[in-house]
Amino acid sequence: MSRPARRICVIARCDPRFLGRPFSCWSLAKLRDYLIEAGYVTAVSVETIRRVLHERGVSWQATKTWKASTDPDFTAKMRRILDLYDHPPADGRVICVDEFGPLNLQPRPGRAWRPQGQPVRLRATYTRDQGVRHMIAALDLTTGRLHYRIRDRKRWREFLYFLKTLRRRWPDQRLYLILDNFSPHKHPEVRAWCAANQVELVFLPTYASWLNWIEAEFAAVRYFALNGTDHRTHAEQDTAIGDYIRWRNQRARPKTGFATGSKIRHPDYPFKAA
């Protein structure tokens, strides 16, 4: 790599504020102006900078957030969940449970194949006076099927009612439920019922929702059932969600191989900084 090309890549990856510029990211034009003013290049076009960055694997990417778990028992809880994913107990089923929502009524941006310059247009809304609903769902790893209920509330009563539907579905098996630390999941009535009905609650570490396999399924529900829609009633929206889940369940396969290539599989994860 030539020295000018190396300079372009290094500066592009820097925060402009560290170099005395009053902005938080580079545009190609601002990057070009800085390189010329700082004397790193004598003359260069925006297109040349774009090509140099592309050829050397530097691309325009979105900033993402990450919340590290503060759970003192993070490692033990994570390994327990991974072991349930990898080696489901012979005496029962492993089921991932969570709430999805809130399901309000609004035009939702999405993507669609369209002629160039002719995107789908949705109305804009400023008032939403029809309330919200919530979906409680369970992903059965044995079959890969989703089971769900949509309700107006998501209190411990609704959650316990949903658990009872799961218990009736598999009456002779012990249920191992992977779920987060939402307070209704830990309500004394819920805990007592689970203890009396062969249901084991396996809680995620705090700030580790990514360990719940159902999160990926929720992303698909949002993408394929809601994005790009403008439902006017909750009944219409509930039907759209139900139609997608039924279509999905007809094609479901057992869930195996969770994050097999991820760094979380390393025996020393989470890695300690030196």
From TrEMBL:
Signal peptide start and end residues:
none
The record's section on Pfam families has: DDE_3
Tell me the ranges covered by the Tc1-like transposase DDE domain, including all copies.
93-228
Query: What InterPro entries has UniProt attached to this entry?
Result: RNaseH-like_sf, RNaseH_sf, Tc1-like_DDE_dom, Transpos_IS630-like
State the superkingdom.
Bacteria
What NCBIfam families does this protein map onto?
transpos_IS630
The protein depicted here goes by the name IS630 family transposase
